[in-house]
Amino acid sequence: MSSEEYAKKVHLAAQTATPFGDLLHLRKCSADSIKNDVVNHPSHYTQGEIECIDAIEAALGAEGFKAYCKGACIKYLWRTEHKNGLEDLQKCQWYLNKLLEKLISAKLEKTFF
Description:
Layout: H1 3-16, H2 31-35, H3 52-79, H4 86-112
Helix pairs in contact: 1-4, 3-4
């Protein structure tokens, strides 16, 4: 397996990793909730050709984006009990997975390139 293939597999694993296994995926999804995935691709952040998160990453650079992801995790954990409960935990998990993806990618780049 080439280093590029390995990096792609790690990238995919980081995107799909969940500390609770498949428990969070047991809830039934309606057609509307799939169209407007409020955790992974909220419609209000996917207008036009680029998602807001990609623009934020481009504007902040690698280190700034990692800090942004950490801050988002803190925010969603902080408000979990007072606002959206499970949805906030899923959003926290999304940002944590994004942070892991960036950290793993950076480590692989140092290892293989």
